[in-house]
Amino acid sequence: MPLKSKYLVFLSVFFFHIYSVSAIEPETLSKYKQIAESKKLWEDRYWTLLIHYTKTTFGWESEADSPSFFLSEKGRKNPKEELLATLSAIVSPASSPNPEDKNWMHPRCKFPERTRWLQQELGIPNSDLAVADCSRFEKWIGTLNPKAAKIIFASYYMNAPASIFGHTLLKIDSANEDRKDILEYAVNYAANADPNSTNAIVYAVGGLFGGYPGVFSLFPYYIKIGEYNDAESRDLWEYELGLEQDEVIRMTRHIWELGSASFDYYFLDENCSYHLLSLLEVARPSLHLRNKAPFVIPGDTVKKYIEQANLVKEIHYRPSIHSKILQKVRSMNEEERNLYLKVIRNGDVSPLFSEQENKNIRISLLTDSLMDSFQFRKMERDPYPNQNENYKKLLLFRSKINTDYDDSKNDPITQSPHVSHGSSALYNEVGTSNLGNFYGFGYRAAIHDLLNTDTGYVPNSSVDYFSFKARYYENTKKLHLEDFHFVRLLSLTPYNSLSKSVSYFVDSGADSSVYEKDKDRQRNALRYEAYVNPVYGSYSLAQFERDSGKDRFERVTNANLEGTAGYSFQDEFSPGPKRFLFSVQAGFKGRYNGKYDTNAVVAPQGAAYFIANFDSFKAVLSLHYYAFGIYNVQNDYKAQLGLRYAIHPNHELRIEAKAQRNYNEASFSYVYQF
């Protein structure tokens, strides 16, 4: 290279270096920093919302965990340092630390909402901002073209650990009126782990204790409809929010910023619903939605939206394919319903074609119901015989007939979670037993037990996380842990011609049983001799039994692990309320305590449930038999009958009776849910 050229290159690099250094603290930047410090701008609520700061015992700390979300090394715990670093970054030139990093963006492009807010608060004109190519962000937000927003609630799904609490996501509606609703985009926050490739127990434990990072993602809404509505048969409830367009745009800019952030994901706390609350606070800072209870349940957050004045404008119901089928079949008359069942049981659609002239049968209603049923079974991976051939016949037949029914007035199969009872509960009880009278209390963190009203939840199901009951027995003058459930799941999904669902029960924690303390027959016989021997006085056998029985039995708490599976039966197809359900299951029960010679026993178990539901009144009978005899231990059983009257969705009265080997009790309780 000629000397002159080398000299020019040297000067260029030298002056660029001087410019870059001097640009770190130009006069204009100093002026804006002075204004920020005089206003203590880092204490502004909006800044704490943008960086997701929460107040802790030791000061501020961001809930975001990824370093890429911060521009200051101290930014995660120091709002002032992060604000000043952001201010410096957006008015100073910057170059990629790695030219090969194609994802690198200038901070003013990476954090457009921070930039907009600082411009507004400090009066920074565009001319004072660093020159940067923000075309990627501009193209992204231009594609979304945000105008309005909806909160989407996907109903509870009992067949996946991540979904038993339900799920919420945010839908961004476009200002483009020609864009169809299902082509809009949905913002999803979820654990960055695949529950299908991870052991269900490991996944559940990891999700409970923050073992996975949570990330935001953006999907076309039709993908989520396919996942929830169709593949998982979950109803969707859409809550149209009363946000102004500028609020939605502000929130959307922040969603872009969160693309560089990850958070520790907790099923019961910092979950999908919690972080959507934070997005809405960014949209409308006057909202204080994250003033959270100890546990954040998706259904409860929906109630928060409803409670806020002018936040929810309308509620829309989008039934799953399974719910659509039930809606159609329940609207049929008896002749139509019999024909529908005949076709799906026999796998032959020809009887439908021969009924075209029958005025009592709505042919298009039956055809659509059958096609939906075939699609449902295909997604369940359990198709009917000759399903593909029959489906093609129905498609061709349907194209030639008119619609003869209106399903717009069909009742929803499930109810919106905002009308459900509270997910946490307090129990207060009094009762009597063959071990004496007792007083009890209990607590449930989440979310629903079998005696609760089903409104807003999956019917005939139970999801207990972190629940316990304790009792004080008058005879022993001691407080006794009656039971504890780390997680207890019960799903009684009906088995029928449409759905071959398996019901199941899983419980882990602790339960109680009665242990017969005096097993030494020789010592027992010697004591009997003492009672009947004249030397010791005239005692009768009855007197001996009364005296020796005082301390003969002891109620003990066992570590417990059990699971059963089977089938439940209910008439799902007829119209009207579903009053009765019967279920039969088989499985195992594991029990541990120091009273057994082997300490732990795992035995076969049989179980049955009968439910009668009459709205405010509900009765549940459950029967469990445990074959501990294989360990030369007495078999055990548990028969429970519960009667519930709901004064209000959150206030219940219950009468319950329970029989176990060596133990019987009856109790009256009041349950408050919140």
How do the strands and helices of this protein lay out in sequence?
Blueprint: H1 3-22, H2 27-39, H3 45-50, E1 53-56, E2 59-62, H4 79-91, H5 107-110, H6 112-122, H7 135-144, E3 146-154, E4 167-174, E5 185-191, H8 200-208, E6 212-220, H9 221-231, E7 236-241, H10 245-257, E8 263-265, H11 272-283, H12 298-307, E9 312-318, H13 321-330, H14 334-346, H15 350-353, H16 363-379, H17 387-398, E10 425-433, E11 438-448, E12 461-473, E13 478-491, E14 503-516, H18 521-532, H19 541-549, E15 553-569, E16 580-592, E17 600-614, E18 617-626, E19 636-648, E20 651-660, E21 663-673
Antiparallel strand pairs: 1-2, 3-4, 3-7, 4-5, 5-6, 6-8, 7-9, 10-11, 10-21, 11-12, 12-13, 13-14, 14-15, 15-16, 16-17, 17-18, 18-19, 19-20, 20-21
InterPro entries: DUF7840 (IPR057162), DUF7843 (IPR057165), Lnb_N (IPR025178)
Pfam families: DUF7840, DUF7843, Lnb_N
Protein name: DUF4105 domain-containing protein
Brief overview, please?
InterPro entries: DUF7840, DUF7843, Lnb_N. With 674 residues, the chain is an alpha+beta fold.
